[in-house]
Amino acid sequence: MNKAFASQADLEEKQVSFTKLSDNAYAYTAEGDPNTGIIIGDDAVMVIDTQATPVMAQDVIRRIREVTDKPIKYVVLSHYHAVRVLGASGYRPEHIIASRDTYDLIVERGEQDKASEIGRFPRLFQAVESVPAGLTWPTITFTGRMSLWLGKLEVQLIQLGRGHTKGDSVVWLPEQRILFSGDLVEFDATPYAGDAYFKDWPQTLDKIAALQPVALVPGRGAALTTPEQVAAGLAGTRGFVSDMYDSVQAGVKAGKDLNAVYKETYAKLKPTYGHWVIFDHCMPFDVTRCFDEATQYADPRIWTAERDVQMWKTLEG
Ligand SMILES: [Zn+2]
Predict the structure, then answer these.
(1) Distance, CA of 62 to CA of 16 (rounded, Å)
(2) How far is the CA of 150 from the centre of ligand 1 (A)?
(3) pTM of the predicted protein model
(4) pLDDT tens digit string along 216-232?
């Protein structure tokens, strides 16, 4: 039987957890659905990745209001993916902050990504009609590193390198050693790598490890609340990315085509990672991008709704 396209058949409701990491840091997680991070400063609240729609953002706001009445002034976008950014307007923030590379990706492919992501995973875009027309635009961009001071609390936004996308940023509380990684790190959830840089990603994970976080909020999966759990999250993500790149590279060197490389890589990775959520969703996109990088495309090609379906038919049809 053919697999339903991407995650159109995924209708399972997820249980939300709101995990306290410190007096200043919380994680809104949902059994492998996209996470949102929350930082509460002396005078303001920062939200890191927004959920997919303004209606879905209301549930995050409801949780925030159980612990603070300070104004939500800042939204940070760890990267450009629609499922992370289209809920931004729901918070009515003063500022939306992202790396300049993320801004450039929104300009270059934001429209196509929005259509593609909504088509792939309708359940994640609950009340999609509440998303305003057009795109979500950062009002502040940075390159490399910036610090924001929420009163006395320093919040660092850092580009440690490319990985999940060209524009990945992490959010770091240096005094408390708490990190919000975006999709650079996943836990018990399959990394989406359709826009990834496979060669760079492990080095970027090294830089995260070098910060020595004591807690880490991944892009998907439960909050990691001990150094041991953080190490497990980093190792799992690294293993998946490296195993895929090794398998695809070996296939390319042997002169195999994408279809053969896909089937081979799926079979190799399934025993180790097949139990992670969205494994079957991610594999065709991930292997296609990995094959591109191992052959002729230094940068990810733009995914459109049409290209998504075409690719799926070729590999799964
Ligand atoms: Zn993403």
Answers:
(1) 12
(2) 26
(3) 0.97
(4) 999 999 999 999 999 99
